[in-house]
Amino acid sequence: MNSIFHRRSIRKYTDKIVSEDLIEEILKAGMAAPSAGNQQPWHFIVISDKNIMIDITKFHPYSQMLKEASHAIVVCGDLSLEKHEGYWVQDCSAAMQNMLLMADNLGLGAVWLGVYPREERVNKVKELLNIPQNVIPLGIMSLGYPAETKEPADRFNPSRIHRDRW
């Protein structure tokens, strides 16, 4: 539970490479996410090629940290796996959050880079990574060993809580 309150978006990384064993643990956490009707509509693209990560920075305005990252993981929703139309976004978002929490738990730094619903980003990622037509990239997780520390943020806001009705 500490990772829920400790996790922060980390955008600066050391040059240490994240091991494949840790990548697998992160992917297992993603695949443990709940999904509508247990449809599990996700696919994950693990990127370690620096040239690909640099190419992403050329069209994604908030992705410059990929130049320093050890890896990136693209979380995608496969429309052909949907049992419940439209829920792929929620399912893949739950997978991304699980992965971010696992990265923190493993002592790694990560940040969620939004792709969907920005059509230009979706199309560029699909083209760059040769993603099939029926698969939509939701987001990219930048991943590495943190070269920055951030204090936990207390985001509890009682004014956002409503009971029974608005």
Automatic annotation (TrEMBL):
Residues 5-56, 62-145 form the Nitroreductase domain. InterPro entries: Nitroreductase, Nitroreductase-like, Nitroreductase/BluB. GO terms for molecular function: oxidoreductase activity. Transmembrane segments: none annotated. SUPFAM superfamilies: FMN-dependent nitroreductase-like. Gene3D superfamilies: NADH Oxidase. This is Nitroreductase.
